Amino acid sequence: MASEEAIDMMIEMLKDTKNLKHHLEGCRYFANLSFYKTFRDRLIKKDISNFLLKAIEVHVDEETIKHSAIALANLSSHKDFLKSSKEPSNMKDTENKTEKWKVKPLIHLLDNTQV
Prior knowledge:
Blueprint: H1 4-15, H2 20-33, H3 37-45, H4 48-58, H5 62-75, H6 103-112
Helix pairs in contact: 1-2, 2-5, 4-5, 4-6
């Protein structure tokens, strides 16, 4: 179940931060789908990494953080991992820097990691 419609529906569930059950289901779905290299391009083009980073920043429940981190780890091998598809196409790679807000959820993730 990885049609464009299914992916778009799960993106909407992932955005639904008020409904923890839907939000967690979206995180799980993308954790599983991102495991397959064949889907990573499609997910990156839909800015899934941004939604997953926001999921980590918004929620402190372990399941959401865990599944978001798994998906982000799977997607991190993609060359456009932290590039936004909404950026101007004429922007040079050297000018394309990670926005500051993208670092905060990663720090939150590390803070919540139990050693």
